[in-house]
Amino acid sequence: MRSVPVLLSDLLLTSLAAVGHGAEKKADAAHITVKDAWVLEVPPSSEMSAAYMKIENSSAKGSTLVAAQSDVARVVELHKMSDEGGMMKMEKVAQIQVPAKGSVALESGGLHIMLIGLQRKLKQGDQVTLTLRFEDGTEEKVVAPVRKRSEME
Asked: What is the pTM of this model?
């Protein structure tokens, strides 16, 4: 049986390790930058929209986007479009890789974030807040304007 001082010592070391790990997570978040974020304006009858952006990673270590949240939709999913035999197919993906010292574009016809079950109508000029969650536990909050597709072409 371990003595109380030994148990307290073990607890202190475990706590310090956890604090150090938390500081590392916060440092990793500083390496992620989100640029040119926007959300697609859709007809009032639509209950779905999509968010697009560029995610940059200045770290020497890759990062992985694993989830996103927004208060404008009941469900938020990571998706990709792909061409399968001349037919465009959209599917949910579990994660999006952001390479070390690189970037990934979330854009129409490719990787994107789906907003499903819109809680309110989105019109040009509105702002949508998204929270991006990465595999290491860090989060990045993004405010994206709602735009018409014609503005992006």
From this structure: 0.78
